[in-house]
Amino acid sequence: SFDANAVPQAPEDPLFGLMAAFRRDTDPNKVDLGIGAYRDDNAKPWVLPVVKKADEKLRNDPNLNHEYLPIAGLADFTSASQKLVLGGDSPAIKEKRVTSLQTISGTGAVHLGALFLAKFYKPNSNRTAYFSDPTWPNHFQIFNNVGIPQKTYPYFSKQTKGLDFDGYIKSLESADEGSIIVIHACAHNPTGVDPTQEQWKKIAEVIRAKKHFPFFDTAYQGFASGDLARDGWAIRYFVEQGFELCIAQSYAKNFGLYGERAGCFHFITSPSTDAQSVVSRVASQLAILQRSEISNPPAYGARIASIVLNDAELFAEWEANLRTMSGRIIEMRKVLRAKLEEAGTPGTWNHITDQIGMFSFTGLTEQQVLKLREDSHVYMTKNGRISMAGLNTHNVDYFAKAVDQAVR
Ligand code: PLP
């Protein structure tokens, strides 16, 4: 019989634990560099102006109701999501080689993809999912839940605080043929380090040679550089090269719709005479998985995003909002680096501006991170990752001085 008393205590989620510790801290100078959510220059959450507009439009729509969405979600949203991630003129869309389902944000998309692969990707033979070392920790938990064995590929070089490209490539080469390679499409979390376009081409070459299956996780398109095409380049390149692949797409960061859980899962098959039939069979199976997991996705966030994505004027306004967020973060990177260099803080700090997106892997040790928390009330994860969005013109000087003290 079930003995609930035998259930062991699970560890607290480190990130959510950190948030709770920050809230308890009463120091007026406290700085939150933990959670990956955008903050404005006053450290406040920012509702994108374009989201406010779409929200109003939605609320004033006399036809609005609260019926269920279809199993695959809002069709206007999923088709606009395809165009966003693949590019409007993608041959994969024209040739109907894509099937897409609306999901519970990026997490739900990763999960749906993992579940699908668990059931249909070489179910009776060895298969392993490879993650970058380090990666978004939830990748491990999600793939573990569906029973897919896991390994990591080298990614971050402690020496250069950039990409360990040789380690990455060697690992792809030595992995068993047909492994699942989980890839951050841009603005790698937690390191902020992305391959260059030349490096992406080599990565694609090895993935092809080894018949690996690429699984893209894109949680920061447009948020990283402010340019949707630039942040989408790697995925579009792989699709152009004819790969069969899948994509987990999140709208949390680029629309600031964190709590609305708007996301999309895409499966793209390679060009072939059979492609449409493959896609329709895959779609039928995904629908069954979705039905058993969530029945149908939540409507609100997808409706907001859909209004923006399907209106040229609002879309342009969204792009401007993206530039506001990415621009502020890029500016903070410059200021932080300059302050550390001016102070002669021991170490090199070029990686702060070389890295991109929400996060920077500072290279601070766990000991230094704890010292920063105790002495200066600065909260960041133990691996030395800071959320750049937590810095602003009011606290960047304080933070730079705190780092200077912690590393001397
Ligand atoms: N994947 C990566 C790499 C992320 O950084 C995140 C968010 O932090 C996600 C997926 C999914 O986030 P959400 O479920 O909020 O869309």
UniProtKB/TrEMBL annotation:
Keyword Transcription applies: no
Catalyses: L-aspartate + 2-oxoglutarate = oxaloacetate + L-glutamate
Among Pfam families, the record links this protein to:
Aminotran_1_2
Q: Which UniProt keywords apply?
A: Aminotransferase, Pyridoxal phosphate, Transferase
The Swiss-Prot or TrEMBL record lists the needed cofactor(s) as:
pyridoxal 5'-phosphate
> Which InterPro entries does the UniProt entry name for this protein?
Aminotransferase_I/II_large, Asp_trans, NHTrfase_class1_PyrdxlP-BS, PyrdxlP-dep_Trfase, PyrdxlP-dep_Trfase_major, PyrdxlP-dep_Trfase_small
PROSITE patterns linked:
AA_TRANSFER_CLASS_1
| Gene Ontology molecular function, alphabetical | L-aspartate:2-oxoglutarate aminotransferase activity; pyridoxal phosphate binding
Q: What class of enzyme is it?
A: transferase
Q: A Gene Ontology CC term for this entry?
A: cytosol
Q: Name one GO biological process term.
A: aspartate biosynthetic process
Report the EC number(s), separated by commas if there are several.
Answer: 2.6.1.1
**Is Transferase included in the keywords of this UniProt record?**
yes
Aminotransferase class I/classII large domain residues are: 29-402
Top-level taxon of origin: Eukaryota
What SUPFAM superfamilies would the database entry show?
PLP-dependent transferases
**Record Gene3D superfamilies:** Aspartate Aminotransferase, domain 1, Type I PLP-dependent aspartate aminotransferase-like (Major domain)
What subunit structure does UniProt give?
Homodimer.
Further comment: In eukaryotes there are cytoplasmic, mitochondrial and chloroplastic isozymes.
Q: Which family does it belong to?
A: Belongs to the class-I pyridoxal-phosphate-dependent aminotransferase family.
NCBIfam families the record matches: PRK09257.1
Tell me the protein's name. Answer: Aspartate aminotransferase
Which organism is the protein's source? Answer: Aaosphaeria arxii CBS 175.79
